[in-house]
Write a structure and sequence with these properties.
This protein is α+β, with helices and mostly antiparallel strands. It has helices at residues 40-60, 85-94; strands spanning 22-30, 64-70, 75-81, 97-98, 101-102, 104-111. α1 (40-60) packs across α2.
Length: 127
Amino acid sequence: MAGAGPPAAAFERRVLRGAAEHHYLRVRLELPDGGARPSVAQFKQLVVSALRELHGEVGAALPVDVLTYEEKTLSAILRVISSGLVKLWSALTLLGFYQNRRCAFRVLQTSPFLLALSGNSRELVLD
């Protein structure tokens, strides 16, 4: 009976990769020469046209939602299915023109959790 103690605990490591259904991106459109600012519908159309330009009709069919849009700062929060994150990010990065004027999308933040985009520790002001 010596050595018949309790069985050794078995530990199992589980890593979940890509478990999130959607990814969220905080983006900003930069128009260096100013001019007309796009409305939310024009902004969404610009995103879809960037996908179409780089990835064709299959890319344009990628479900992308504009959750928030600030016309004053030209910034938005976009939601995309996780499998389409790289396609969306690359299409936005390579877009160079809006209405025959130079432009650039800047991806400011990305996360599988919408709550993570609610604040920015770099802009945090403590009293």
